[in-house]
From TrEMBL:
Residues 268-350 form the MalT-like winged helix domain. Residues 41-168 form the Orc1-like AAA ATPase domain. It comes from Dictyobacter kobayashii. The lineage of its organism: Bacteria, Bacillati, Chloroflexota, Ktedonobacteria, Ktedonobacterales. This is LuxR family transcriptional regulator. InterPro entries: AAA_16, P-loop_NTPase, TPR-like_helical_dom_sf, TPR_MalT, WHD_MalT. Residues 466-689 form the MalT-like TPR region domain.
Amino acid sequence: MERGSQDPQIITTKLTIPPHYLKKIIPRTHVYAAMEADLQRPLILITAPAGFGKTTLVSEWIRQRQLATAWVSLEPADNDTLRFWCYILTALSPFLPDLTELIDAWQNEQPGLSIERLLTQLINTAITLAEDTLLVLDDYHTISTPAIHQALTFLLEHLPLRLHIILITRRDPPLPLARFRVQGKLTELRTHDLRFTNEEATIFLTQAMNLDLSSEDIIELRKRTEGWIAGLQLAALSLQGRTSYASIAHFIQTFSGINRNVLHYLTDEVLQQLPEDVQDFLLQTSILERLNASLCDAVTGNSNGELMLEWLEQNNLFLNALDNQQRWYRYDQLFLELLNHRLKQKYPDLLPELHHRAGAWYAQQGMDIDVIKHAIIAEDLELAVQLIEQHAWQFIQRGEEALVALWLSQLPEASFTSHPMLSLLQAYTAFLQAQMELYEQALTRSESLWQQEQHNSHMLSRVYDLRARAALYRSDGPQIVHYAQQALDLLDDEHSSPFYCSSLLHLGAGYLYQGDLIPAAHYLAESYRLGQKHGYTTIALAAACYHGLLQNIQGNLRTAAQTFQQVCGETHAIATWPVIAAHVYLADVYYEWDDISTAQLHIQQARSLSQQIQNEGPVTAQLYLVMARLAWLQEEREQALTYLIQAEHSSQRFGPNPTFLARIAELRMRFLLAQGDLNAAQQWQTQYAPP
């Protein structure tokens, strides 16, 4: 997987401490004290469900202490490894000016700058901090990429004394929290720490929300909400329209806490008390994840967006400012969900038009991802398909196959029956996710559609190239050669095409699997030459890797090791399978040389890189196989057998692979014979006889 050349767009509002929107901020003295006492620890984890005031708590504490703070507000789009660390580095750069060059190198894919090296340079730079500095990652629960969690763990384990990380999240992140607790590196604030006390609830309801309530009413309301801040706010908004004591008392006595139905009921009551034009504004703009005045005007067709946003903010109607200039906003997520529900109920026929208007605004701003999203929802399929076919390969090259797969999953089946490129994209993403039935259906459809069109032989070659790749993942030499040759025959005059270069690679690998080393060497060398010439780095590295395997088969282990070392030296910020494969094959060579410590280093590097890639590759099974051999050598018997099972499962993800199964069986039989279990070894030999 290779990163594309486009730098991620940094949204600067995500790097600002969120401003307050309540007239009165409730002092949380006891919570501040807990944070203050443990400020010297590397990690402060603040975890609680939505609506417990986590972000407000941290931002107000920072303002009171006037702490040096780098703030990043996260969202699902930040699951891209490149984008995530660009935000982290950019947020820290005001305090560490030397990071500027590192940011440029990371964004521009400087050769040799892996995630490990990036973090190492960040850590070494942060040692120079002269004062305590906070790195706050808000809404960390939106991050699900394992590679990001792993990299953050590495950073936390080597964090300089002056740098502290605060994670604000709705759930525990997949970090080694138990180890951090034992090591004294972790401070935790959880739901019970964040619940409002009676005193805090009193200040909130009477001063922030301007309610005239008795102490008994406040205690009862606090009890029924269990100190849940959002619940108190929802209740307060409903109470603001009640004037009689009997009405207030009845409402409080019948309030049932944080049940989702109650949340909907309260929000409905708030909405019903608002002017009709405000309600319509809220409903129509609920299709947006972020709002500004211009975008709201485009969606509603009015020109009062700025006034409406100001009114909503002044009345504390679940509107969160995303910058200090009050230009961008977002609705509270729970409120947004209800608005969406009401919109579909009240104006179902208006939905497509609203999304069309939003898409038109985003198109003017050049924000194609948002255009595609709204075009799909608006059922403007012609525009959606056009943009997906135009931009999908760029996103795939950047390692964002999941985003392309999401777009494709939202399109109706009819869209694929008349668009061969769309079907090819569906086949490609399905293949990467090992959805082999969908892969075959989509690829067959793409092939059929292109065969019906004239002058599209170069497009049909992409189908055969993908079939060759699938055969490669199954170690099926004859099929690799067959499909790769078909692709090359259709691309005879397009030697600069990446698919021509890829097909040469597959043809060489196919001959290698068949044992035909002379044609294998020829086609691999040609693939490497063209890959280097035209900048197809991943293909060139893959060709070099297969050439190293060829040298190994010829008995030239030292030459092969040098080839693999050359590939390993071409590491990139985002991992690629050829680099991972080179580390695996080097580990195998060093194992044969009985240099176990070096073999383990390369396996560790291969595992670290592979965790940055969300999909398994053709070398994953080989990685588990080498790990099994090393584990067995260290007398970790059960672990070695577990690795063998993982190797077996991985090798069959892309279809039957009897060749690799035979290799697994051979290694398992060696293990069993070493244990003296001759009967079990004979059973394995019978079950997995080489083809």
